Prior knowledge:
This protein is an alpha+beta fold.
Amino acid sequence: xxxxxxxVLAANRGEIAxxxxxxxxxxxxxxxxxxxxxxxxxxxxxxxxVAVRLPGSASAETYLNADAIxxxxxxxxxxxxxxxxxxxxxxxxFAEACAARGVTFIGPPPAAIRAMGQKREAKALAVKAxxxxxxxxxxxxxxxxxxxxxxxxxxxxxxxASAGGGGKGMRIVRAAAELPEAIAAAKRESKAAFGDDAxxxxxxxxxxxHVEIQIxxxxxxxxxxxxxxxxxxxxRYQKIVEEAPSTALSxxxxxxxxxxxxxxxxxxxxxNAGTVEFVLGPAGDFHFLEVNTRxxxxxxxxxxxxxxDLVREQIRVAEGHPLSFTQEQLKLDGASIEVxxxxxxxxxxxxxxxxxxxxxxxxxxxGVRVDSGVEAGSDVGIxxxxxxxxxxxxxxxxxxxxxxxxxxxxxxxxxxxxxxxxLLLRTLDDQxxxxxxxxxxxxxxxxxxxxxxxxxxxxxxxxxxxxxxxxHAERAARAPVPTVTPRFRNNPFxxxxxxxxxxxxxxxxxxxxxxxxxxxxxxxxxxxxDAQTLVVSNLEVxxxxxxxxxNGVRRAARVTRADDATTVLVDGVLATFDESPRFPERRVxxxxxxxxxxxxxxxxDVRVKVGQAVRQGETLLVLEAMKMEHPIxxxxxxxxxALLAPPGTQVDPGxxxxxxx
Length: 661
Ligand code: ADP
Ligand code: ADP
Ligand code: MG
């Protein structure tokens, strides 16, 4: 029976809500957004045909508030709900509640969601379906059984939260002596994150790849796979770069993994889009990890290599149509790579960043797709995931997809919040990445602890020059035009000096106007304090764009000034110059033994007591911000002198949390 969908409510926000609306518009389906107070001005709200406010900003009050969302559907005549990913996407009760209210849930049946919701049960079902799994504990186990399983498979082992997701509650254990403490910690984390402390234990596979299979089923018993995505580039078990096809799969291995995924999907009566995740060992051995019963963040790479619109297919399947393709009709064509752009500060351990985005500029390019949730003026708050956009390159082969993506990222100008842009570029340009030599430890293996290299002196000098030229042009435009230039003066403007700072580095520019109208600029900076003299002509400035010729080379730059920072994009380098005081309060505090919150968040766990001796590197307390946990660790040995923020405290950046002397 076909039940046509006329109005879709997206029970989500940001880029995925926009993504769903895009397909709905192309199908002539009416769209409804729901939005929190924090998202009132967000692009996805504007783009929907109608929008309903969910009072509050916390996820629990808004995007996780099933009743409020179902009410919004009733009030707006929505006959279907697309849950996106995250939030209610893998919530079987929500899917059931939709059905009970006569609203089509665009996703799998509640029973399939439930069956895959616990990793332990999912793994048991995989075993039953003849799908290889990672050796480890089986079924519901107590601590003694976990220890026994660890001995049986051999260390190192990985403890996981059975209810887990997003890499939370996962711990590597390298020796039996560490196991009891690791179990206790993993239970605590899992309980806090998922309200459930069931664990499982697996052999820890050293240097695996993460390769997952996109599956699709319909209500008529058809199940196919749409090939693989490789998502080995991860940080804290979270994917940041994904691609299709994987460089590690032969046609035979692809067919074997695809078959395994389809077998499991059939065994659980899977309908709609889903993903079966595997780890792939160096010898081509693959092991089931889990099933994500929803559309995945990285679905665009599959769309790029299959030419399909997965959201359209989801809607059709939810209406009751059979799949619009058979396995034989599906073709893998070309290659695609996606990167996730996150608001995070590379200078502060890649912690999530908040702030207002002043510039977000990414020129359109052939072979590049941008799925973004933000635009200039968007406020990146503390309440939700810090992912800003996905940028996807595609082309006839991997190298052309990669080069297009690199070119797009080099043109990305973003200011107001720091991002992982440079880490993404470094990854895409890395030799091992180019060669397709990937594993889940790629980032540490290739880059060590300093994930991003600081900009070179030459790049900083060029950026400082562009910033100076923009200020100069602005001032010149404001100054009264001298009708007669006094003969005895060489230049109508005095010599001017500007200092620019990036972290602990400083670049200064001295410039003056020459008689022929060109500019003479001396840039000094970098480790050796070398001076460079440049003659600049043909300066043109319009809003943020600055173009000029320096020592015979024409260049274009984009300069954004806001708050106390200037951001410059020039020749692929994005530099942010700080104009805030050299030593912000929190750094001084850290030097005196105070540990400040690096970002707004909530203290979830205090691991030490007043008077306790602590060792360098020991976790003092845990701050939760933007759905991630951030341990605050001791910089040096000492004694805890004061605890200033008990668990549950909501803190602003710079708030002193603890003092260690
Ligand atoms: P997984 O990491 O579970 O294998 P994905 O890579 O598809 O799966 O990532 C899903 C994650 O995306 C969720 O766990 C959640 O943290 C995050 N997320 C949820 N909603 C949003 C959103 N609207 N925008 C950005 N990220 C989101
Ligand atoms: P989540 O629900 O958090 O997505 P997964 O079970 O999918 O949890 O694992 C997340 C990531 O952790 C994988 O992509 C992989 O990088 C790593 N991982 C998971 N299991 C293992 C294992 N047994 N050995 C090595 N790495 C693993
Ligand atoms: Mg996973």
